[in-house]
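Section 5.1 Outputs to date
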Amino acid sequence: MLNGAGVLVTRPAHQAEHLVQLIEQSGGKAMRFPTLAIAGVDDVDEIKKTFQRLDSYQCVIFVSVNAVNFALRANGGKIPSSKSVIFAAIGGSTAQALINADLVVDLVPKQDFNSEALLAMPEMQHISGQRMLIVRGQGGREELANKLRERGAKVDYLPVYKRIIPQVDNISNLSYLIENGLNVITITSGEALQNLVLMAGDQHATAIREVPLVVVSNRIRCLAADLGFNRIAVTQSPSDSAILETVIKFVTGNECG
């Protein structure tokens, strides 16, 4: 299907393997070039203290698998369960990570694995006066908390990880990849895209903007257009299989977006 096409995989190194395997199984040449690295926050005391008083919240929302894994790492491998707390996850993979941690997941969108889908659920409509905790990385989108606050909820953040730019030889690595047939770039977050542009520098800025881009949301598509990318396709979902499907459409000339 991919006939040797080169596909740039920009996921963090520890999250890239499944997509790499799918690309290679479909006849593509997966090119690993992580534009994000994930690390735990420096101070874990606040995480431990927050989990000790988890019963003070009515709902705890985990935004990603990283949020679950780094929360576990910071708190000795355990997230306390509570019958009085609703646990919510954005996405099936995040829900499964919570289940693997012996927690019951009460809310998870069945499709459109994003904040908007969680906000659209009936359980999130009448929440005035409820206390909610969002477990996430440092920074990130504010839309979820803003909407919950508009509906009358009191929302706190618990940052458990941070995103950093990997320490690699950007110019040499990108030069090699471009020279060896880079056909499609995959991007799964806005920050990963911004880092790619930074890592490319002036030397490769024009070259990477000419490569077809596969992104996982319309929000990232808008950012990519603002950054000068012209050929952009949006996947049906953020799953690796959906990313692969869109990559194949680009390579075979049946692009959408």
